[in-house]
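Backbone-to-sequence.
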C-alpha cells in the first residue's frame, strides 16, 4: 500500500510538471503531433462545409510558434465569407478559424498563427494583446477575379452563447471562476488530480481549462478535457457575455497538452455535446445574473 501511494504521488508530480512546462518547451519536439492534427482540422473544415472555399494546406512547426497554412481563391471571396458568417451566424470567421486551430493543437494563443494565401493577398491571423488580429499583405501585380465561389450550406459554426448581465465585468469573471470550479469538481476522476486552470485573462477575455474529469459531457467513462472562451463587452449599464467551449476525450488517461490519445468530441458525440451546452449555458446564466 505504501509503495502504491508513493507511485501515485510520483505520477501526480509528473503530470503536474508536464502540464505546467509543456507550453514553454521547444515545440519542434512535438512536431509529429502538430502535423497529425492537420487532418483533424481538415475534417472540421469538411464537417462545417468551409472546405468548399478554404483549404488546409500544411503546418509549419517552429521552436516557439506553429503556423497553419490555409488557402482561398482571392481577397474578394475572403471578404464574402467574412460578410456571410457575420450576417448569418453573428461570428468572426477569423476568430472561428483561429480558436479551432489553437484548441486542436493544444497551444497558447501566442503560439499560433494562421496564414491564408490567396492569389492577391496573404491574410495573417494571430493573437495580439488578447484579441484576434488580422493583417493583409497585398501581392504586387495580381488582383481578385471577383468570381463567386459558392458558400452555401455552412453548418455547425455557431457554438457561441450570449447573455446580458447587470453585473460588472470583474464581478462576472470572479463569479465564473469560483462557481465553475465548484461545478466541475463534482466530476473529478477518482484518485486523480482535478485540474481547473485559468490560462488567459486580459482585458475583456477569460479562457480556462478543465481536465481530469469524467462524465461531465459524454457519460461514457472517458477522461474529458474542456476549454471555455469568454468575451465581455460593456454596454452602458449592462455587460454582454459571450462564450464558446471545446471538448476532447481520452480513454482512462490523465490529460496533458499535445497528447495524441485525446480526440475532439465532435462530430462523433455531437448530440451529447449539444445537450451539455444546453445544461452548462443554464448554469452560466445563473452565475452571471
Amino acid at each position: 500500500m505504501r509503495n502504491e501511494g508513493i507511485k501515485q504521488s510520483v505520477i501526480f508530480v509528473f503530470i503536474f510538471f508536464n502540464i505546467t512546462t509543456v507550453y514553454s518547451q521547444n515545440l519542434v519536439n512535438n512536431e509529429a503531433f502538430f502535423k497529425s492534427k492537420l487532418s483533424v482540422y481538415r475534417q472540421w473544415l469538411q464537417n462545417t462545409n468551409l472546405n468548399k472555399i478554404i483549404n488546409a494546406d500544411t503546418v509549419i512547426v517552429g521552436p516557439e510558434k506553429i503556423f497553419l497554412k490555409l488557402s482561398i481563391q482571392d481577397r474578394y471571396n475572403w471578404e464574402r465569407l467574412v460578410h456571410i458568417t457575420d450576417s448569418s451566424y453573428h461570428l468572426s470567421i477569423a476568430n472561428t478559424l483561429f480558436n479551432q486551430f489553437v484548441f486542436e493543437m493544444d497551444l497558447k494563443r501566442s503560439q499560433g498563427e494562421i496564414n491564408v494565401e490567396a492569389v492577391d493577398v496573404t491574410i495573417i491571423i494571430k493573437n495580439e494583446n488578447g484579441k484576434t488580429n488580422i493583417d493583409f499583405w497585398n501581392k504586387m501585380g495580381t488582383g481578385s477575379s471577383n468570381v463567386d465561389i459558392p458558400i452555401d450550406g455552412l453548418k455547425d459554426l455557431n457554438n457561441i452563447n450570449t447573455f446580458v448581465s447587470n453585473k460588472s465585468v470583474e464581478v462576472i469573471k470572479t463569479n465564473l471562476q469560483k462557481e465553475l470550479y465548484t461545478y466541475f469538481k463534482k466530476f473529478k476522476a477518482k484518485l486523480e488530480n482535478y485540474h481547473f486552470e485559468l490560462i488567459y485573462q486580459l482585458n475583456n477575455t477569460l479562457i480556462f481549462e478543465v481536465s481530469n474529469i469524467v462524465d461531465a459531457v459524454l457519460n461514457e467513462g472517458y477522461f474529458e478535457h474542456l476549454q471555455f472562451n469568454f468575451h465581455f463587452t460593456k454596454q452602458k449599464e449592462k455587460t454582454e457575455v459571450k462564450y464558446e467551449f471545446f471538448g476532447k476525450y481520452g480513454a482512462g488517461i490523465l490529460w496533458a497538452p499535445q497528447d495524441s490519445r485525446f480526440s475532439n468530441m465532435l462530430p462523433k458525440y455531437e448530440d451529447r455535446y449539444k445537450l451539455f451546452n444546453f445544461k452548462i449555458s443554464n448554469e452560466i446564466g445563473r452565475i452571471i445574473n
